[in-house]
Every structure is written in structure tokens, then in C-alpha cells.
Amino acid sequence: MNYETIIGLEVHAQLRTQSKIFCRCATEFHASENQNVCPVCMGLPGSLPVLNEKAVAFALKMAVATHCQIQPTSIFSRKNYFYPDLPKGYQISQYDKPLATAGVVEIVLENTSKKIRLHRIHMEEDAGKNVHGERYSYVNYNRAGIPLVEIVSEPDLRNAQEAAEYLRTLRSILRYLDISDGNMEEGSFRCDVNISLRPERSDRFGTKVEIKNINSFRFVENAILYEMERQRMCLEEGKRIVQETRLWDEHEGKTFSMRQKEEAHDYRYFPEPDLMPLEISAEWVSQIRSTLPEFEQVKKQRFMTQYQLTNYDAKLLVQEKSLADYFEQTVHRGGDPKLVCNWILSEVLREFEVSKVACSSLTPGHLAELICLIQKGTISGKIAKDVFEKILKQGKMPSQIVREEGLEQISDAAQLEKVIEFVVSEQGDLVKQYREGQKNKFSFLVGQIMKKTQGKANPKIVSELLKNKLEREDT
């Protein structure tokens, strides 16, 4: 029997606030263990939560950017369960009245696009982190109370590739909005996969299995592929799929059972008595909508149209908003778009990580001036690479380096003709071979001229003058 895979994803993204959602403790990732804690995020008796307005604004940005229906009133609830990393014994989240519902995210796969519906977006606090040693287990509560936005999709995804692209698109939106760093290695972008199989053409869902806390796109794809095959084999053998929570083991390359899946009533949700209902005004939503940036796919299409870039190059440039901004700032300072693109994707990204280009010592002004020197013929492409290395080490502007080190390109015809005359007389055998039809010797002769001028000769003018000389004397 052929089966159809039904996939829905629950994504937790850490919001990029400086303080936690209900207290003033810092959210820095690399703090010492249990450094950023207080009575509120530790749930000590008598402490009261106060909602972080910046966290609400960030969550609203995500909801507006994904075309959700913003709820005028939403309520925080207590989600009760016991686990050592949950200091209060409950998690403040949103349940029956979330911040936003009914959104949509469009994903692009090759030349096709697909709209993935969102069921809801809501806010909640993160738990702490268990650290397991050989003999003891410890709990670090620094993460407890960090603001999260949970994005829950409808079961619209049908394969591992769609799921991975959906996650990439979500993370891109979060980063373009500058509300989350989306760092999967540090746990600020995590994914739970809900997956089931059903016979093709059936309109009934199969039994759902949840795979918890997967922190890489590759692991998500691999976990889905494994679970699809595991469930298919169970169904073909006549076994019953158990509704449960499973974990992905990347070393074993398989999922394993963690616990039987809880239902919502198991958490004993009830409204958080220490927090007032959250009221969202239409004016606030409108103000946030007016600040939304140009997102990745729209920017890519514009780069292709406005700057005549290929689909491949434009896609690489817009993968990070900071990189796309760096490209445009360089172009606006006079750099030819295609040259700027080539330099960024080759030389610049060889030196810096994509996300760190914008804050590097190589400013758009440095790169634009370097490219303008190439365009004007002041320096050759080869010398430009040497100047580039000197910019990184010295921090000086390209024109200053060229001036101080005498690197200007030689374009004076009379000066170049003297060098050409010397090389032609010195390489008599090669010249003869060229005139006898071995045209491949021409490049070697050009190289000798460039060598005599220490790479400063204008290669275009050298080629023209050398060709004229060889053909003129040949006749």
C-alpha cells in the first residue's frame, strides 16, 4: 500500500531581548551557570511576574510578518508539569487564547512555491537546562524565563525537503526582523516534528508521533525520513502506531521512545492569576506593520531585476539581511553590482562568516573604493587582491595603500611599448613560433611583460599593443 506522509512542525524561537520575559535577568548565552537568576524566574514564594513589552513587540512582528490574525485579547496560562529544569513546577505559556492565529508562510522549492498554513503563534517562557555528568546531574537555570515565540504549523507538509525549507524560511523571517538570532547550535531555534502516515487518497489522519527538540535542518530531514520508514514498516506488518513522544539520536540515526504522548488536559492549564489579559491595539499592529523589512524572496527577485544578478548569486547574497545590506551599501558607493557580487562571494566570504561581514573591519566604503580603482584602470585585478589583503591587515583605504606603495597600473602606451620591445627581442624563439601559427605562445609573452612590470601593466593595453606589434612585423 502507498502511504501519504502528514507533517506539522512546532518551532520555538528565542526572542532577542536583553532581559527575560517576566523579570529583569539578562538573557546572555555564555553567562556562568545560574548567574542570571532571581526570585521571579526561580519561582520563589511571593515573587510576581511583570510582562516584558519588548518581547510582546517582537512576537507581534513575527505574527504580522506571517499574515496572522492578531487577537485583540490574549491570556497567559500556567502549564503544569514537573521536571527538574522547571523551577516553578509550571510554565507560563498561552493556551486557549493565544496571541495570533491563522497565518501563512510561503516556501520555495526549485521553481515551485507552496503556502504552509500556521495554526497559531503564542508566547511563553523557556525552561532551564539539565546538564548530565557521569555521576551527577545539574540544572542551569539561566535559560529559565527567557522569552520564546512558539510557531505551530498546520499539517500541510508532506516530506522532509518541504519541512527543512519551511524551517529555513521561518528562521530567515526571524533574522530579517532582527527578533531572534535563530542559532540552532545554542538552542535559540528548536523544532518538534509531528508526523503520521495515512493511505493515499484517505481523508483521515493516522496516529501522530512527536519527535522532540531537533536542532539542525539536516537532523530534521533525517529524523523525518527515518520515522516515515519506521511507521510504514509498522503499518505493513499490521502493528499499531503508538501516540508517543520520541527523541532523535543523530549518532544512531534513529528515533527512540521517550514517553507516551500527553494530552492537553494532562497539563491542567488554567489562566495565570498574576498576569492581566494582554490587550493589543489596532494602532500598535499598524505601527509594527509599517516597520517590516523587505524579506528574502522579495529581495532576491529585486536583486535579479535591479542589478542583473543570476538567481544563484542573488540567493547567496540575501541569505542574511546584513550581507544583502552590505552588498547594496557597496553598490551605492559606486561599485559595479556584478563586480561587487563577485568580490563578496569570493574574497570577502573567504575571510569572514556570512553573518559577520557587516561588522567586519572591511566596510562597504573600503570595498567600493577598491572596485572603483579596478573599474577606472588604476589597478589591475591581480594587484587589487594584494591591496585587499593589505586593507585587512592595515585598515587603510585602498587609494591610500595604492598611493603609498606605488601600485598604480601602467597604462601609458609609450612606456609599455618599451617593455614590449625588450620582451620581443628577448623571446625571439617564442615570437617566431607564434608567427608560425602557435598562437598559444601569445599568453606567455603577455605574462613576461606583466612580470617585467611587476604586475602593474594594464593587461588589456598590453595585449592590444603586443598583438599589433607582432602582426605588423609579421607582414
Tally of DSSP β-strands: 16
Instruction: Provide the β-strand percentage band.
Output: 15-25%
The largest sheet is:
9 strands, mixed
Q: What oligomeric assembly is this protein in?
A: single chain
**Separation of termini?**
80 Å
Helix content: 25-40%
Any idea what the shape is? elongated
Give the neighbour order of strands across the main sheet: 2-6-7-10-1-11-12-13-14
Give me the number of helical elements: 15
Task: Give your account of this protein's structure.
The chain has 475 residues and is α+β, with helices and mostly antiparallel strands. It folds into three domains: 3-288, no CATH class; 296-405, no CATH class; 413-474, Arc Repressor Mutant, subunit A (Orthogonal Bundle), CATH 1.10.10. It is 40% helix and 21% strand. The strands form four sheets. A nine-stranded mixed beta sheet has the order 2-6-7-10-1-11-12-13-14. Strands 5-4-15 form a three-stranded antiparallel beta sheet, with no helix packed on it. A two-stranded antiparallel ribbon has the order 3-16. It is elongated, with a radius of gyration of 30 Å. It starts with a strand and ends with a helix.
Concise overview:
By secondary structure, the chain is of the alpha+beta class. The protein has helices spanning 53-65, 160-177, 217-236, 282-289, 296-306, 311-317, 321-332, 337-351, 364-375, 381-394, 398-405, 413-426, 428-435, 441-452, 459-474, and strands at 3-14, 69-70, 73-74, 76-80, 90-94, 100-109, 112-125, 129-132, 137-140, 147-153, 189-199, 209-214, 244-249, 254-260, 270-271, 278-279.
